[in-house]
Amino acid sequence: MAKEGADMTEETQYMIDRNAGKEGVIVESPSNAKEMRAVVLAGFGGLNKLRVTKKAMPEPQNGEVKIRVKACGLNFLDLMVRQGNIDNPPKTPLVPGFECCGIVESVGENTHGFEIGDRVMAFMNYNAWAEVVCTPVDFVYKMPDEMMFAEAAAFSLNFVAAYMMLFEVAKLREGMSVLVHSAGGAVGQAVAQLCSTVPNITVFGIASCFKHASIKDSVTHLFDRNTDYIQEIKKISPDGVDIVLDCLCGENTGKSLSLLKPLGTYILYGASNMVTGETRSFFSFAKSWWQVEKVNPIKLYEENKVIAGFSLLNLLFKQGGYNLVKSVMNKLLSLYEQKKIRPLVDSLWALEEVKEAMQRIHDRGNIGKLILDVEKSPTPLMANDSTETSEAGEEEEEPEGDNDSKERMPFIH
Ligand SMILES: NC(=O)c1ccc[n+]([C@@H]2O[C@H](COP(=O)([O-])OP(=O)(O)OC[C@H]3O[C@@H](n4cnc5c(N)ncnc54)[C@H](OP(=O)(O)O)[C@@H]3O)[C@@H](O)[C@H]2O)c1
């Protein structure tokens, strides 16, 4: 059975405690500042396309709040954006990032429900990785008093996506079984915690071996991603599972479908397998595409299987689903206040350390969520590290494939 509660690692607790002194509602920003720092992606490609630059200070429009950002979430999707490995990529240069939290600094005209000084978290359609953001109130939520900024930045995207897949799409109920890939990641841990809020759920988790000691209590059965997990799961549950959450795509799609029980639901919500090297690989893209089992509705009818897809960002920003998301967020905040869920934070990074943070996800090193802490000073640079604040330019180029980021300390201690 999935274990109760949401224990944090000592490391997470330490990092959050360390940041506790920074919490508060004092808005210190110089109201006349004309510029702010932001991470900019100069073009699609490798880590060398990222830099921190000064940008014009945004001002809130009708129905928007201006937020002095404290922390931002770094997601696997941000790697895919950096590589240009997404549908309809926007034009570069751009400021990446889909979620952040901070303190409301001012509000635009006709903006209701928020006041200066409110501690908030927000979804952004890009532009989150900056000292200041402006966004419509439809995508903004008040933080519970006891929630730290590092937690808030780790909360929105992962928990809302996990909740909607489990409860809105797959209708998770008592006694069901769930298979989740990347179980040690940010979404994976949100899935595991939410499953523990329903009685008698069996969670099959797949993750890299070195994470097992840290996350074994969060799932019922844990398998190394390099083992034949289909056979292992069938040994325990010969009929298969009720829900498969697949963020890998490619060869895992067919395997996952073969594990579904009659009336079971398979949800595709990511394509991590498409990321192989530092830059986009057409070969990996094509391989994933070809390996996806072609869906035949007649076969689904015969086998009684449900296939679904889920994209929170499309739901929010392209399909007008923000009211539904708001109601889900209210339920999640209530679970947080009842101490039934709590985001697992892997590590905190300065904006200037964004390359190292991304490298950590590439290297499969994270257990839980990576956070960009806007007030954190970067770890001192070693000689020849060129991660820097640039006032000059978003179009600056560096040679492809530089590995300067590896000169920094990989962890925050
Ligand atoms: N559709 C949506 O609304 C939505 C929302 C949020 C996230 N997602 C998707 O959910 C997945 C997880 O996202 P997340 O932000 O929580 O990230 P995450 O799980 O924290 O991501 C990192 C982990 O993914 C695993 N992984 C699998 N393939 C990988 C690869 N090719 N390169 C590096 N790591 C790989 C690694 O864990 P192991 O080595 O342990 O497997 C790694 O530690 C992603 O596919 C993301 O796009 C979708």
Notes on the protein architecture:
By secondary structure, this protein is α/β, with parallel strands linked by helices. The chain has two domains: 2-155 and 343-405, Medium-chain alcohol dehydrogenases, catalytic domain (Quinone Oxidoreductase, Chain A, domain 1, Alpha-Beta Complex); 157-315, Rossmann fold, CATH 3.40.50.720. The chain has 13 helices and 16 strands. The strands form three sheets. Strands 3, 4, 5, 6, 7, 14 and 15 form a seven-stranded mixed sheet that branches. A six-stranded parallel sheet has the order 10-9-8-11-12-13, with helices on both faces. The chain has a three-stranded mixed sheet with strand order 1-2-16, with no helix packed on it. Helix 13 (354-362) links the parallel strand 14 (345-349) and strand 15. Helix 4 crosses helix 5 and helix 4 packs across helix 12. The protein is globular, with a radius of gyration of 21 Å. It starts with 9 loop residues before the first helix and ends in a 23-residue tail after the last strand. 47% of the residues are buried. Mean pLDDT is 86; it is low at 1-28 and 383-413. It binds NADP nicotinamide-adenine-dinucleotide phosphate. Keywords: Oxidoreductase. This is Type I Polyketide synthase. It comes from Ilyodon furcidens. InterPro entries: ADH-like_N, ER, GroES-like_sf, NAD(P)-bd_dom_sf, SV-ATPase_mito-regulator.
Mean pLDDT: 86
Strand content: 15-25%
- Under CATH at level 1, the class of the largest domain stands as Alpha Beta
* Low-pLDDT sequence parts: 1-28, 383-413
Looking at CATH, the homologous superfamily of the largest domain is Medium-chain alcohol dehydrogenases, catalytic domain
Order of helices and strands: HEEEHEEEEHHEHEHEHEHEHHEHHEHEE
What structural class do helix, strand and pairing data support?
alpha/beta
Total strand count, please?
16
Q: Percent helix among the residues?
A: 25-40%
Radius of gyration using CA atoms only: 21 Å
Number of domains: 2
Bound small molecules, by name, code or SMILES, are: NADP nicotinamide-adenine-dinucleotide phosphate
* Apparent shape: globular
